[in-house]
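TL;DR need structure tokens for one chain.
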Amino acid sequence: MRWAALLVALVALAGCGAPEGLSSTDSRLQVVTTTSLLRDLVEQVGGDRVHVTSLVPDGADPHAYEPTLRDVRDVVYADVAFSNYMMLEQHNVIKTLDANLRDGVPNVSLAEDAVKYAAEVIPLVENVNLDTLWLGLRAHGTGARHGTDRSSDVLLSATHATGPGHVFGYLTGTFGETEVYFDSSDGFDAGDGFKDDTATLPADAHTHMSWVFTKPGTYTVTFAASLRVDATSRPIDLGRATFTFAVGVRPPAGKRVLDEGHADITADLDANGLLALYDPEGGGEHTQVRYAADEIVIEVPSKAIAEVPAGREFRFMGRPETQIYQLPQAVLGKHVHGEIDPHLWQDVRNVMAYTELIRDTLIGRDPAGAKTYRANADAYLARLDTLDKDVRRAIQAIPRAHRYLVTTHDAFGYLAHAYGIEVAGFVTPNPAAEPSLADRRKLTETIRNLRVPAVFLEPALAARSSTLREVAGETGARVCPIYSDTLDHAVGTYEDMMRFNADSLRRCLA
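>> reply
TL;DR here they are.
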């Protein structure tokens, strides 16, 4: 079998110094999860009958983590697999699960399946206000007629560009690393399928990114889209289209100018074509307008002038401080996602639904342990009910006029929805560089106008917070910690995380 052949190549990876992986010689039920949060939930329900490991290590970003060969080994040995999904995890993490689990092993997407247990999901509405258009890439539609599933890839390739300078599309990750999607400075190579100028997305997802132009003028960029249903299938052509950009110059007459809000260059899996989906309000749901490429021009105005940031990761654009025109990424970190917010666990009631689904999945795989799983789940559900009340009580102790959350990461919509706190904004609209003076002024005015007592940073992102700390100092706001996606040595369980966050919010905002 496919998985058995992998064992020969991977068994040497069980070397010294690594956490204990899953094993075929362990009598316990072997369980793999995508994140440390899910690992903790399974441990609470499974107790001594299960051995659990997570693919994404403690402290790592699940949006950006790339699985290793050791992770493949753990998947191969797993008797049960749990992911959050709703596109929370990096796509390669999901593909590693789906490609390497043995036949018949339960593979549970908790965020989606927990809806049957009364979990509540909310739309992911992105209300970032920028002075320029927020432009991303999108795969729209399910592609069901092609047989797509959550492991399928949509490939969006830049194949040609014209203009007075070079064009770059890139993403800045949570920890400051860059991923270049396309780069016109070295040409476009059809011989390798435009491999170096291609962005890969799951079906029905979109990604944020920054767009850079090195000189003012009119540019065109041609994109081609294809669908790869699985690793062995031939790609299905979804079409191509050429988009026009007016960079620091007046847009040509006769076309609709996209100059504000949120737009995505989009591969339509169901209609087989490339188009622009546009939301002038910037919410990101794209229910308003569909434009063909030849109907629009994308404006990159003079106020988009920026400089190449310092740091080797930005050298592909030129020397530091070289002038460029940039449509910024808008939201910190690597976010490839759909229209539903995947961070369900920020509402404790949703984790109660996760717990019931985990209990029933473990019983289905290990009926002899049913009594243990039910007893552990009942005890954990009682603690979660208390936790929910404690979080609610802590946030209600904050004066209503102070219940504003400014963070680095759009991961707290469920917390806001469930416990009555408003997400007021993010640290900076452009994580690729330090904020401009205008950005600083807007952030300062937001904190002052709303009289926000504190802003919140995830510990893993503290090193990228110098501007926020300076603005907080100018306004008298405190800088306080908060956790979103992952556990670490200081906050080792889900209960610890939620109590830590509730206490941090109460202390810093009240």
